[in-house]
Amino acid sequence: MGTTTASLTLRKLGDITGDGSVGLDDKLQMNKRLNGLPTPGYELRHFDLNGSGTVGLDDKVILNQVLNNLPIRWSQGTDAVPACPGGPGQRPGTPTHSLSLPVRARCTARASRE
Ligand SMILES: [Ca+2]
């Protein structure tokens, strides 16, 4: 019988940057990712905190829970992203001020591309 060794690096949940702690630098990277901005050096697995295979608001909620020392509440759903006002299933003219900043930014970015 032979033996082998393998090295394995584990990150704390929410430690996107891999510096060993969860802080505002991780939140900044998550916001950039959710807003479609470049996040060089980081891959999907760094942001996909719930292991759903995608990056969405569920992952940001988990990051916020970690940052606030709250118990992690795993979502039962997928990474549901709220629809943009005026988008499919939404009434035109729906106010955007009630949206979270990342969603508002995403909707604004989408509207400017259309
Ligand atoms: Ca996810």
- Rg, rounded, reads 17 Å
Number of strands: 0
**Helicity level, as a percent range?**
25-40%
Rounded mean pLDDT score: 81
Provide the β-strand percentage band: under 5%
Low-confidence stretches: none
Give every kind of bound small molecule, once each.
calcium ion
Distance between the termini: 62 Å
| H and E order | HHHH
Largest sheet: none
**What's the tally of helices?**
4
Q: Which structural category fits the helices and strands?
A: mainly alpha
Shape: elongated
Q: What does this protein look like?
A:
This protein is mainly α and 114 residues long. The chain has a domain at 24-75 and 88-113. Helix content is 34%, strand content 0%. The protein is built from four helices and no strands. It has helices at 24-34, 44-47, 57-67, 101-113. The longest helix has 13 residues, at 101-113. The radius of gyration is 17 Å and the shape is elongated. The protein starts with 23 loop residues before the first helix and ends with a helix. The mean pLDDT is 81. The site of calcium ion has 9 residues, from helix 3.
Sum this structure up briefly.
With about 110 residues, the chain is mainly α. The chain has a domain at about 25-75 and about 90-114. It has helices spanning about 25-35, 45, 55-65, 100-114.
